[in-house]
Design brief:
By secondary structure, the first copy, chain A, is α/β, with parallel strands linked by helices. Chain A has 3 domains: 130 residues, NAD(P)-binding Rossmann-like Domain (Rossmann fold), CATH 3.40.50; 157 residues, Dihydrodipicolinate Reductase, domain 2; 79 residues, Alpha-Beta Plaits. Chain A is built from 15 helices and 16 strands. In chain A, strands 3-2-1-4-5-6 form a 6-stranded parallel β-sheet, sandwiched between helices. The first copy, chain A, has a 6-stranded mixed β-sheet with strand order 8-10-9-7-11-12. In chain A, strands 14-15-13-16 form a 4-stranded antiparallel β-sheet, with helices on both faces. In chain A, helix 1 packs across helix 13. Chain A is elongated, with a radius of gyration of 24 Å.
């Protein structure tokens, strides 16, 4: 069994010397006095692993052992805790994590893909070999979202977890609104500045947010992360009009990851999607690259945690907090539950959940169009809270509609009925309202 | 040494059956399934203590042992954990806590006055007898502020902790602004509705916020709570004009508790005061009775936690989270530090800290007044960022001034020089800007 700071010194091996790995090294040195006072002993990095041993990273590696192979690092006798900041569901990082867990060691990882997609395997290894796994840094960077939920709200029955979990997307949406620019334009700038990757799909299609959501959901509701069950929709199709009309309707358009118990059935509904958040919800005003997690739970009501979701400092803060947990002998049940309480729910779809929705239609601008659209809604029993028509480009018009709460089945019927109208130029865009 | 859930069952005694005590009882029953899954065992209340054994509290006490004396409850063999929700720095609650700690037991308390004012004694008892003390519920109700700071941000060097720590004051300030009403008027309504006590001084003079701040400060900076070192100023003298002018100058007026390292000296500066918060600071939009804690730290940058700071549910959530910590074997160093890092600083005053400030002057409305006032500021080297004069009541005028960052010593000289002007009707009111 992994045991914490038994000998008065904890020996750490760091697999991966990118931004986060170097950040961890730097943090352990710079805040050494505070960290020792808080653990009652020393945390010492003994060995590191990286692809390139010689590259200058601005930190002194000369006193540290170097392993070209991360799994060999994990196996070293002078490594009590493996810090894995390589990433990926397979390859060097994953191999090192598995090797350390098989050796019954403690692992601290920032690898959200691995924990989200192979969480069950990791849990089995921890259970079999008596090691420990910490993953605060995998979710929402510097925000102590895992500890806040798993320890801080441990007495609660969670009703929903919702988060702005991808800083790149929040940055893009904020900039579109603030500078009245189109998605492609802002994305290109973000890529030029290095805020978004050359291949941005991991961020903007919601995969990164979904990895974090799967982990949060497991901690909130029990079980292991169920990444495959997440409904995924990114921000590629969000238009400037959507964002501006959101404000007109007293909403803020955010890419959220949401998990909540499925209405009328077992399991948990998990989705990542751009949704409309009412302006009086505190998450609506979380801008730029900030992340936030909002938990609705009984009996605590609503808790929001807000902070930086990425970057060297915030991520290193979370990694080292996990090392300190281990040093202090803090080792809560993996994913927060000693025994499972509810299946994470393999089915997808919105089920019977009733939601308000926001619709954007592009139609031919001719008399009677609003009447045609309204009749479709009325025939399907979907009632309108607010409707607004604007000129799109002379011959075409946008119709924006806020509809009252209704189940997905009705919304689907309305969508396909609208699609059959001759005035419709393109398929309607529909956003959930996160009330 | 207190040991957690050794036998598979943890036996709890609750001292105090007011709102919070009943809330804890109810929560342990209602969320029993979740809580067992998260601890791997049962949490069972075996005994309770209250002044009146017979009053109907809406919960079934018939299977529980009853002790009239809380200290006797603490001493019972079938009580592993004492939950103390009586309150007070002396009397039944304090006696029970001391008795349990002397017996080497675990104590979970919501008693902020006791922890803030007698923290050193409690720490000595824990160290001597090997018990454990948990106090999440003593600070900011349902917000996991202690765990967030002590575990979540354990790797950081804290630069400041600032919080909206008293819901009654935040409610009053919010209502004054929203309904354009005077302080006395809103306070009277809050008392009539039961939101504020008949003797409201504990809340509105900042004592309650200061108790919480002393605890937060100890966890953030090391040492034990130093309640006596806190500069205290409540909201009695806040006028509607101050609140409205705050908005005019892009600030929100909030009662904050703030702790930060003293500039240019050892120790920590702690104060509770109504201060001006820039509107782009996320704490500025925390309204009504919500609480929030903002931590500025290296390397995590800024973390905000927001939620309900009082009430049966949120407080019970924090109490039971602490019981679960103990059940899981989680017992971090008391106040977060195994060894002290910095004296908490007995001196008071703002020292050399440079701050922007907001001034409200009431002056005779005659020509040349602004020039007189400006000259005083200029002579003392205090430069003006913005100045605004409004009519107060025909013969008198208000002058509101935002001054650039300057040390307290200069602000004090300006205040006394202004006081010497014949046009001044009353002493100037000065607010710090929390940049």
């Amino acid at each position: 069994m992994a045991k914490g700071l038994g000998s008065g010194e904890l020996r750490i091996g760091i697999a991966g010397l990118g931004t986060v790995g170097v950040g961890v090294l730097r943090l352990l040195t710079e805040n050494q006095v505070e960290i020792s006072a808080r653990t009652g002993g020393a945390l010492r990095v003994t060995a590191v692993s990286a692809r390139d041993a010689t590259r200058d990273r601005g930190v002194d590696l000369s006193v540290l052992a170097f392993e070209a192979d991360a799994a060999a690092l994990a196996a070293r006798d002078d490594v009590d805790v493996l810090v894995e900041v390589i990433g990926g569901t397979s390859g060097a990082g994953a191999d090192a994590v598995m090797a350390a867990l098989r050796a019954g060691k403690a692992v601290v990882t920032a690898n959200k893909a691995l924990v989200a997609e192979r969480g069950a395997e990791l849990a089995a290894l921890v259970a079999e070999h008596g090691g420990a796994l910490y993953f605060e840094a995998a979710v929402a960077g510097g925000i102590p979202a895992i500890k806040g939920l798993r320890e801080g709200l441990a007495a609660n029955r969670v009703k929903s977890v919702a988060g702005i979990l991808n800083g790149t997307c929040n940055f893009i949406l904020t900039k579109m609104r603030a500078e009245r620019r189109a998605f492609d334009d802002v994305l290109a700038e973000a890529q030029a500045l290095g805020y978004a990757e050359a291949d941005p799909s991991f961020d903007i299609d919601g995969v990164d947010a979904a990895h974090k959501l799967a982990i949060l959901s497991a901690v909130a509701f029990g079980g292991v992360p169920d990444f495959g069950a997440i409904d995924l929709r990114g921000i590629r199709d969000v238009t400037l009009e959507d964002i501006e009309m959101a404000a007109e309707f007293d909403f803020s358009l955010k890419l959220l990851g949401v998990a909540k118990p499925r209405v009328g059935g077992p399991g948990v509904r998990q989705y990542v999607a751009p949704v409309m958040v009412p302006l009086d919800n505190p998450i609506a005003s979380v801008e730029d690259s900030f992340n936030a997690v909002v938990v609705q739970a009984d009996p605590v009501d609503e808790i929001m945690m807000r902070g930086r979701g990425a970057g060297e400092g915030p991520t290193a803060s979370a990694v080292v907090a996990d090392i300190i947990d281990f040093a202090r002998g803090i080792n809560p049940p993996l994913f927060g539950h000693s025994t499972p309480v509810a299946a994470s729910g393999a089915a997808s779809g919105e089920g019977a959940a009733e939601e308000r929705r926001f619709w954007r239609l592009l139609v031919d601008d001719r008399p009677g169009v609003i009447a045609e659209v309204s009749q479709v809604l009325s025939e399907q029993g979907l009632s309108v809270e607010k409707i607004l028509q604007t000129d799109a480009d002379g011959s075409r018009a946008h119709i924006f509609i806020l509809t009252h709460a209704a189940p997905r089945s009705i919304a689907d019927k309305v969508a396909s009925a609208l699609d059959g109208l001759s005035c419709m130029v393109e398929q309607p865009a529909v956003y959930s309202i996160e009330d």
